[in-house]
């Protein structure tokens, strides 16, 4: 993995559901500084949304007084998104990663499935009552166009 950092943003925001789309668009806008394809961009957006919504919904139970921290780093041909909460944490990470597992019967339990299928690496670090950090990494093919408009 190429380790020369091309750009990096750090974003901290309240644990409010409206910040899911904000973080998705922000990461996508940064990603267009690399030559991403439309489909790579869509995959990055979905994976980012899933990680951020987990931090807000599960980590913080939608508590707006809590802060989610997102660090997005661009390398020559990789994009890395780190989403960190200091919420409830995950007791059993292996179980949480299982397709269709959810601690909430109303949910599908597919967030990690999307993250894993759309990104090349998904690393989950979590401690009960201390919080969770999810790191997503994606290799960028370089066959797309730079600096497209993002919405
Ligand atoms: N940041 C987090 N803090 C605490 N628990 C988490 C966090 N992220 C995930 N989890 C746990 O892992 C489980 C699986 O997450 P996943 O995103 O795959 O499914 P889901 O969020 O339950 O459902 P969906 O994403 O389909 O709406 C969650 O139900 C939750 O118990
Ligand atoms: Mg989820």
CATH class, named Alpha Beta
Domain tally: 1
Helix-and-strand structural type: alpha+beta
Q: What general form does the structure show?
A: globular
What does this structure look like?
By secondary structure, the chain is of the alpha+beta class. The chain is built from 4 helices and 5 strands; from the N terminus they run βααββααββ. The longest helix has 22 residues. The radius of gyration is 15 Å and the shape is globular. The structure holds adenosine-5'-triphosphate and magnesium ion (MG). The site of magnesium ion has 4 residues, from helix 2.
Summarize the structure.
The chain has four helices and five strands, in the order βααββααββ.
List keywords for this structure.
4 helices, binds magnesium ion, Heat Shock Protein 90, single chain
